[in-house]
């Protein structure tokens, strides 16, 4: 054969660049379920089922398209369990003239693929992944000579480049960003239409059995399994989201309610990240909903900004800064990740709710990730790399290029403000305003230093106090320090002492 074409779990697009460059008559596709990748990170079992099932469905589609596909199943006795050895076996078996692939999404896997040239003495042609809307070169050009790499300016350039929500050179509605309108507090009686659900077919049921057998000790509930596993289903999920949830996406983007894990969010990230949905097409669908009068501009702009802005921007940061980015720890946070992140076994209602929902569905929406689990880790000084490993494991949409900048940068400020202009730190007051979690909590959200005071309150001030040297000069935090300095010294020390007690309880299961 001419080319061996490896296709990875996040490359499930029929028009992937390497497939466009290949020829079904002369080339051979290789897809691999390898144990080493499943062990590299302690993935949620629902995520494993999703990935393996979506891969198996994709292999079927590729075969329909006329490709020859070697599919190495996890339980194939010849499966060596790692990418490089499987490539080696395929090279021996098929004798290709070259390896042809689309750039892997993860720095580690890309480095591994680059080594195949020497490992197997064969040319390796690696093509750009043009499913993204901003290439590495474009992002480097944008970042060059800028003092600050703010997402907002990148996003405006992407709007100009794609013409999305533009009227000539001006943004529709004469504003680039409608975020201030997207912070409505939730009302308890609000009901949201559940996201699209798809019953498992025979392929998915087989994969559920496989994952149950091979990963018995892993976290996360497999059933009920309702995710889309092929393109047609993912497109149906996108249509349903635009129809039912998009109109309210903006208003309640930052809101959280117990018993409503999905609110008006799309739950499309896993499908976009694996290639079942195309980001630009999705943005155009949302834009059309605005032009049809179906969804307001604040909702549509908010949704498009997440995909065209944040998603492309964090990818740009990842490739610009790896591999050093993974080890950043600007705030020198050294505490171990508490065990309750894996079990949800804590009296803090907000943490328990989000962690339990995560273990059930391999999903949490953005504000739950940023302002509950991320915020707690930031305030408590949890090691950012350990937290990164947790996020990468527990969410079905988690791939390193998108998860890592969100965790290390946006949520933990471990990149010293490269990604965000100030840390996303908040006390219980914010959580109480944006959710109904505090009502069912063991702790008192109005109390700062008593024995049952909300842990977020004292930890918030402890965080601000211990990082004063670094943060006090930040103009966006001057009010915070003014308020702290106004507090009488005995109240300050009672608050800091309560925080020390909370930190002491972290790993004893006492929280
Ligand atoms: P919606 O709220 O419906 O948003 C629409 C789409 O916008 C998403 O599907 C996603 O593709 C994109 N998007 C939204 N916010 C972001 C963002 N900050 N960065 C990149 N894309 C974004 N997203 C991932 O896809 N994978 C991850 O592993 C991941 N890890 C995260 C870790 C932390 C600590 C934080 C704070 C955020 C993380 N995010 C991650 C970003 C965001 O939380 C998820 O994309 C979003 O919650 C997915 O749910 P949804 O599809 O319902 O999103
Ligand atoms: Fe979370 Fe504090 Fe509210 Fe409890 S009181 S739910 S710990 S914010």
Keywords:
mainly alpha, two-stranded antiparallel sheet, binds iron/sulfur cluster, 5% strand, binds flavin-adenine dinucleotide, single chain, 3 domains, 511 residues, Rossmann fold, DNA Cyclobutane Dipyrimidine Photolyase, subunit A, domain 3, Serine Threonine Protein Phosphatase 5, Tetratricopeptide repeat
3D architecture notes:
This protein has 511 residues and is mainly α. The protein has 23 helices and seven strands. It has helices at 17-21, 35-40, 45-64, 83-94, 107-114, 116-120, 136-143, 151-162, 202-214, 231-249, 269-274, 279-291, 297-321, 340-343, 349-361, 366-380, 384-394, 400-411, 428-434, 455-466, 468-471, 478-486, 489-505; strands spanning 3-6, 28-32, 68-72, 98-102, 124-127, 166-167, 170-171. The protein has a five-stranded parallel sheet with strand order 3-2-1-4-5, sandwiched between helices. The relative contact order is 0.10. Flavin-adenine dinucleotide binds at residues 265-269, 272-273, 303, 306-307, 310-311, 314, 365-366, 369-370, 374, 391, 395, 397-398, 402-403, 406-407, 410-411. Iron/sulfur cluster is lined by residues 348-350, 428, 431-432, 437-438, 441, 443, 445, 454-456. Pfam families: DPRP. It comes from Aestuariispira insulae. This is Deoxyribodipyrimidine photolyase-related protein.
């Amino acid at each position: 054969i001419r080319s061996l074409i490896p296709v990875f779990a996040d490359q499930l697009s029929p028009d992937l660049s390497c497939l466009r460059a290949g020829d079904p008559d002369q080339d051979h596709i290789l897809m691999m379920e390898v144990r080493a990748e499943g062990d590299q990170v302690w993935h949620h079992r629902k995520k494993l089922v999703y990935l393996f099932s979506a891969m198996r469905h994709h292999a079927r589609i590729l075969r329909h398209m006329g490709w020859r596909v070697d599919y190495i199943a996890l339980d194939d006795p010849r499966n060596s369990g790692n990418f490089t050895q499987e490539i080696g076996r395929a090279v021996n078996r098929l004798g290709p003239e070259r390896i042809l692939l689309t750039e892997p999404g993860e720095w580690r896997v890309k480095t591994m693929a680059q080594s195949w040239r020497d490992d197997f003495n064969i040319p390796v042609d690696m093509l750009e992944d043009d499913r993204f809307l901003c290439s590495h070169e474009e992002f480097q050009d944008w970042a060059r000579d800028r003092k600050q790499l703010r997402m907002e300016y990148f996003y405006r350039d992407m709007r100009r480049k794609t013409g999305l929500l533009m009227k000539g050179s001006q943004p529709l509605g004469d504003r680039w960003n409608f975020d201030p309108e997207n912070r409505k507090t939730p009302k308890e009686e609000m009901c949201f239409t559940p996201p699209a659900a798809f019953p498992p077919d025979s392929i998915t049921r087989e994969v559920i059995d496989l994952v149950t057998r091979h990963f018995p000790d892993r976290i996360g509930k497999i059933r009920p399994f309702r995710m889309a596993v092929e393109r047609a289903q993912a497109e149906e999920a996108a249509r349903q989201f635009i129809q039912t949830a998009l109109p309210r996406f903006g208003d309640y983007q930052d809101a959280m309610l117990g018993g409503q894990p999905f609110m008006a969010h799309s739950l499309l990230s896993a499908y976009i990240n694996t290639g079942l949905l195309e980001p630009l097409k999705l943005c155009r669908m949302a834009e059309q909903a605005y032009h049809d009068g179906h969804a307001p501009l604040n909702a549509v702009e908010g949704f498009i900004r997440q995909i065209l802005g944040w998603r492309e921007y964090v990818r740009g940061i990842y490739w610009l800064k790896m591999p050093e980015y993974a080890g950043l720890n600007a705030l020198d946070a050294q505490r171990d990740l508490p065990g309750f992140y894996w079990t949800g076994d804590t009296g803090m209602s907000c943490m328990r709710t989000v962690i339990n929902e995560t273990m059930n569905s391999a999903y949490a929406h953005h504000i739950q990730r940023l302002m509950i689990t991320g915020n707690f880790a930031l305030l408590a000084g949890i090691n950012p790399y350990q937290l990164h490993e947790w996020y990468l494991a527990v969410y079905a949409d988690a791939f390193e290029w998108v998860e890592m900048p969100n965790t290390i940068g946006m949520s933990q400020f471990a990149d010293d403000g490269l990604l965000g202009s100030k840390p996303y730190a908040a006390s219980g007051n914010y959580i109480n305003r944006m959710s109904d979690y505090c009502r069912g909590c063991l702790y008192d959200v109005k109390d700062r230093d008593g024995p049952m005071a909300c842990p977020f309150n004292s930890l918030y001030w402890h965080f601000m106090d211990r990082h004063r040297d670094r943060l006090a000069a930040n103009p966006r935090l001057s009010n915070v320090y003014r308020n702290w300095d106004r507090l009488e010294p005995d109240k300050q020390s009672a608050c800091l002492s309560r925080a020390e007690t909370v930190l002491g309880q972290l790993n004893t299961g006492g929280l």
